[in-house]
Amino acid sequence: ENLLWRAFENLIKDVFKHGQKGTNVFITIEEENGFGIISIRNEIKDELKDSMRVSSEEFKNKYLNGNVLNQRTSLMVTKNLIEKQNGMLDVKIRENYFTASLILKTI
Q1: 97 near 59, Cβ under 8 Å?
Q2: Tell me: the pLDDT tens digits for 41-95?
Q3: 52 vs 31, residue with greater confidence
Q4: Residue 98 in 3-state DSSP?
Q5: From CA 96, how far away is CA 43, in angstroms rounded?
Q6: CA distances from 102 to 51, 69, 80 (A)
Q7: Residues 22-49: what's their mean pLDDT?
Q8: What angle do CA 54, 58, 64 make, to 5 degrees?
Q9: Which partner from 1, 38, 41, 42 sits 20 to 30 angstroms from 27, CA to CA?
């Protein structure tokens, strides 16, 4: 199975699970300095906004690098899938929006 597709699928599932219903989801695909970047940005569900009011670095440390209640998060799985392809997963939180970017070297 294609690892890139599985990573992308995980991010789309997270949009439906954690995103605010009735809002737009933005997907951008770009090339920059020899890297392909696929970014997905969406508004966070109202009931999650208070718990997401942390810096991007705090969020990364909790959800990408550590276990949450001894469970692997879908973002951790996505990060591992992308790293197996020598890529990176970057996440950012700004105001009420969450952005996840898959970053891979272009061929």
Answers
A1: no
A2: 998 877 666 665 655 566 666 666 655 554 457 888 888 899 999 999 988 878 8
A3: 31
A4: strand
A5: 6
A6: 24, 25, 11
A7: 89
A8: 120
A9: 1
Element of type H or E holding 75: helix 74-83
Closest CA to 67 of 52, 57, 77: 77
Three-state SS string over 1-50 comes to: CCHHHHHHHHHHHHHHHHECCCCCEEEEEEEECCEEEEEEEEEECHHHHC
Tokens at residue 23, please?
A: 């809002």
Distance, CA of 105 to CA of 76 (rounded, Å): 20
